[in-house]
Amino acid sequence: MSTVKYSAVVLGAGPGGYPCGIRLGQLGVKTLVIEREYWGGVCLNVGCIPSKALITAGKRVEEIAHADVMGIEVPGKPVVHMDKLQAWKQSVVNKLTGGVRTLLKANKVDMMVGNAEFTGPRALSVTTAEGVVTVEADNVVIAVGSRPIEIPGFSFKDRRVLDSTKALALDEIPRRLAVIGGGYIGLEMGMMYAKLGSEVTVVEAADQVLPGFDPDVVKLIERKLKKDKVKVFTRSQALGWEEGDGGATLRYRAPDGEKTVDVDYILVTVGRRPNTDTCKLEATGVAMEGRFIQTDSQLKTSVPGVFAIGDCTTGLMLAHKASHDGEVAAEVIGGHNAHNVAKTVPAVVFTDPEIATAGLMEHEARAKGFEVKVGKVPFAAIGRALTTGDTDGFIKVIVDKKNDRVLGVTICGPHASDLISEAALAVEMDCEALDIGLTIHPHPTLGEGVMEAAKAAIGQAIHVVNG
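-> structure tokens emitted (467 positions)
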């Protein structure tokens, strides 16, 4: 058994771990990144990137089907060749994951493939293809990520029961698909398969899909789900399933009694859990909050020299949050006085239409006791949206009535994911609505809507009637 020593070791090469490793290399810290399966983590391999590739394909199919409104006629119904679609999706993944290894190597970061377990606070035993290696370090960054939650009676080992990873790798478009969980992952996947031709049924335990989101957003998404012929059953709980003739029969309890639906696959999307049980974490002695690792603003744990970032820590389970965590931890290890003190972590849901938020949503601001003013502009009032034929949705800017500070922005509509970064900057910089309103935005663009909504919040909108 060989032993290697490093100044820093990063356990996990996902969207938190690999940026941490790269930044450590840039800072001249002798670093090793250990990964057991996916360079780039779940996000690049079986999560964010492949799902958005398939979601784009679904949206493209819908656009082709409705191109006749622009005078463009496409004879016949679009045919989706799933094998070619999967091959294209994988080519995108391969480019990005190959880039991760290239960047680590370029920054003089060592890489090791293997299954690592802690033997002490800063010591690991790594089982590799060549044998067991003991790794010791002055600093360790735990970036082990998360995995889908499995619920009783729905084992991911069963062929008909899918987690998000299996759902993204199907070699066929399911004729009938049930989705357990109407949160953002369930709706992203469900709407995507509906656009590709599946009959989709969503079973959600809460009173609404997208629990916790702005009611105006939920109303709009529910309308689009209905338009896409997605059946939604709220206040309903999945009970179990049985193999039937050429499919599965899902049993669920609805408010008016027990019901069944026949499907080909059952996708379970009820949340994710941290992988803190996969690496003998107890050997480190770090303080925990349930299954999550406690950290401070520098991503330090309760044990000196041990850091934790991303999904295995408390806070939002988002790739960009993990990346920021990783860079902050690297800076601290490199001797800089860095802290993660972000005022907001923007969130994006790739449903149709897209949803994006930064700062507080309207109902959250009111619940916190703020007296607010709200500027809301529909995409139908934005010239660029009209020229694309994609006008569902709105941009909403929420400001503090006391001083016109921007508390948050909610966007539901085309390219919400691209528009939200300006809003995140406004919240981060503690802007007033007028700071956005006085910033000249190019025309014709969707971004004009953010400017107009900010002006509307203070009664100065030009292209919508001020409330």
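Residues 82 and 170 are 8 Å apart (CA to CA).
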